[in-house]
Amino acid sequence: MCHRSWVAESEDNHSNERLEFLGDAVLGWVIADLVFRNYSDQAEGALTDLRKSVVNAMALAEVAAELHIGDHLLLGRGEDAAGGREKVSILSDAMEAVLGAVYLDGGPAVAFDLVERLFAPRLDAAVPTLDRLDYKSALQELVSHRNLTGPDYAVRSTGPDHDKRFHATVKVAKQVVGEGEGRSKKSAEQAAASAAFAFLTAS
């Protein structure tokens, strides 16, 4: 699988980006279908939260890591040296590319089965924590309860306008306690808040 950093340093003209676009759509379709059919007792807002619990960069990267997808990436020398095989943004993109490739090669039914096998357990695990999927609110409550300052978010973006990636950091008591990435500012902040919430509740 060719990351764009590899394409920039080689004669290969094709990166994973088109497959990422397709895989993102495939994932969204399958998860929406699973959530609608399997959680009929949940309200519409809860269904949206359930979908968000797995249709995000962190969840995709975790699945990619479990499948050791990073070992099979073609990266540019600089990106490889910088630990690109373990970066959330690169792993999540690669996972989307795999889903897109499976859809093209095996068809909708095969792609559906793969997504269900990889992500359905994560949906089940998310159900008991639906009230905490809005991690920005949960973090704000935790910080207030502990009489700490913050949370304060900082967000930066990378990439072209049509394919931006956002990276967020969140500080509590002037210390960085969480980082996260996403395709929007909101999703990046939620990912950072989730990491911060986990860090603070474990400490």
Describe what you observe in this structure:
- This protein folds into 2 domains: 4-130, Ribonuclease iii, N-terminal Endonuclease Domain, Chain A (Orthogonal Bundle), CATH 1.10.1520.10; 135-202, Double Stranded RNA Binding Domain (2-Layer Sandwich), CATH 3.30.160.20.
- It has helices at residues 4-9, 17-38, 44-54, 57-66, 77-81, 88-106, 108-126, 135-145, 185-202; strands at residues 152-158, 165-172, 175-182.
- The mean pLDDT is 85.
- Strands 1-2-3 form a 3-stranded antiparallel β-sheet, covered by helices on one side.
- Strand 2 and strand 3 form a beta hairpin.
- It is built from 9 helices and 3 strands.
- The chain is mainly alpha-helical.
